[in-house]
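Why does residue order matter? Because the sequence determines the fold. Keep that principle in mind as you read this record.
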Amino acid sequence: MGAIGKYLDFLWNSFQYDITVFSHGWLYYWLLIPAIGYAAFFVLKWVFLTVPLWMPFAILVRLFNPPVPNCRNCAYRTILDTEPGLEEGEYVPENDDEPKVQAVTEPDNDTDSKSST
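Structure:
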């Protein structure tokens, strides 16, 4: 049996153990607190155990879909794309002829706009 077969066997045995734990009745007493705790542990455990299965795909997706260099108005921005001196929500024009404009925000409701008589 090769390394892949042993790894899949280990995953299957781990999954069977987790299902056995979830089938215990005491896990569902006391407002499901133990069940919620084990479910959180279960998710973290399986993310870690299946890293050899999903990590190559994540790396390939990242390699073939890199961020656009110097993307100023993209929704997907990296730390390298940010310009010093820009505030949150500030618009940066595509060409240098347009002026920089602050993002539109709602007016403050703190001041009373009604005239007092």
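Helices lie at 3-22, 33-49, 51-64.
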